[in-house]
Amino acid sequence: MSKPVIAIDMGGTRIKIGIVKDSTILASSSISADSGNGLKNKLPYIEKAVRDLLNQQELSCEDIAGLGIASPGIIDSHEKKVLSIDKKFGDAPGIDLQKWCRQAFNLPFTIENDARAALLGEWKYGKAKNYDNAVLMSLGTGVGSAAVMEGKLLRGKHFTAGILGGHFVINYKGEICNCGNKGCVETEASTWKLTSIAKDNNSFLDSKMASLSSIDYEAVFKWAEEGDSVAEEIRDQSLQAWSACAINLIHAYDPEILVLTGGIMASSSHIIPYIRQKIEQHAWTPWGKVNIEEAAFPGSAALYGMSYLVNTDQK
Amino acid sequence: MSKPVIAIDMGGTRIKIGIVKDSTILASSSISADSGNGLKNKLPYIEKAVRDLLNQQELSCEDIAGLGIASPGIIDSHEKKVLSIDKKFGDAPGIDLQKWCRQAFNLPFTIENDARAALLGEWKYGKAKNYDNAVLMSLGTGVGSAAVMEGKLLRGKHFTAGILGGHFVINYKGEICNCGNKGCVETEASTWKLTSIAKDNNSFLDSKMASLSSIDYEAVFKWAEEGDSVAEEIRDQSLQAWSACAINLIHAYDPEILVLTGGIMASSSHIIPYIRQKIEQHAWTPWGKVNIEEAAFPGSAALYGMSYLVNTDQK
């Protein structure tokens, strides 16, 4: 019987903290990521949030199997280090998180890439449960991905396999990405780039979006529906870019199912039918159709994945 | 001790036939692929070429471990069938090649995708020999690829994993590819598309290439060197497209080495340094540098790969 786990999901906007037992969240809270100031300054707040949750559940660290962090970036899950991280939490590679975990809680420590953790959650408990070959695409601040092939979570020699779908080149004559690459999926369509994409549009000042200081996809989908031509243009380009990413993930990893998640999927009714149609039209899958599904746990799959991983690590 | 193998490499231009023992070609010949007329009409010629080579070597079918075909397209290596093939040898999915092999030679039959076979050859005997994580990119009539991850040749659930690098979207607003997808690597830069790319250039009639009925990359590289601006433009776009493909393969499969092969690599001195520089500049590999190498056996790696596979299949 598995013990509860402290699971932490370091999102670009909020850091989610949960006491999780398998796929049940016993208690959870979140703090602002305020990621521009890095991770180090956040650790005392995370520690306090964890203690509050433990107290609330009347649990002590002895009742807990371990602590797991789902982090953006490239994560060495063996050495338990952040290797490289794309602007968010930029100080993380220099922090000994395992030591922090031991000093704060005296608990075993696990860390994994956040998209991989989310796919693990969906694979063990959610939409990808009955599949040995699954891919996840996460649309949000950035674009994340992960893959399970032949029943095995893909990590690769240097921990980058599966997770760089957002940095596939889909416009090789395009703009430079945060990561240093050119024409990545993220530079064509993601929340971090959205305001800049909108402002570069020649008709931006005629758009309703010109009144906003920061633009999100909810506004884009809403105003595109209402006939704002700049919003329509951005919506269509973004849907095309995500479809190209999905096709590349399918061509790379040969999955039976593609699970879509991330903050932008709040507008899933605009996204799923489009991507499904483009994949049927364009992906080379002579064997049949890839299932295209919305995540079962859009907000908590990464916490469930870390719960699974921490327990696996302890075996 | 392994027996010799009959290995057949179904290229877009020539069908190569060899009697191969491990990485030694005992005898070989080739016939025109003339692929527009399909594969069925070629089988009697292939059979005759095999018999001639056996006679020449004073071998009978009893001395042979089996017959292996390296074919373009998506290959079900378990059921030993061509599932889907991109215009070349379009009749192949309807042919029972295993039956043909039994009736003609009474030998065990093996079939695999040609880029996978070439990577196997390079992995077992050539440039990728000491690596457990390797990717191959083949530049020729089309663009092929294959991947080995953690010591295992990647095939995937439906046999498409690793081999669709030429059909990664790198220009999501681009043109429709032979495969039905949009903006594939192949539609941006490959020999089948080259003449059409050149003719679409606004300055084509001012170029030396306008005098040719069919254009190849040897001419493009030569005339670009001599200052022909259309050739320069096509060269630069093609190098950018192949670099984007290489970056996507690295982002997808996390290899230690990328092996480049295919007919276009006759101009490798123009290609390798460019791709190497772009990868160093743009690929996200915080662990270090991917080795970028020309194939050890540009003309025969697929034959060696099939020799290895036929012997493995018999064990």
TrEMBL record, chains A, B:
SUPFAM superfamilies the UniProt entry points to: Actin-like ATPase domain
Record InterPro entries: ATPase_NBD, ROK
Pfam families for this protein: ROK
Protein name per the record: ROK family protein
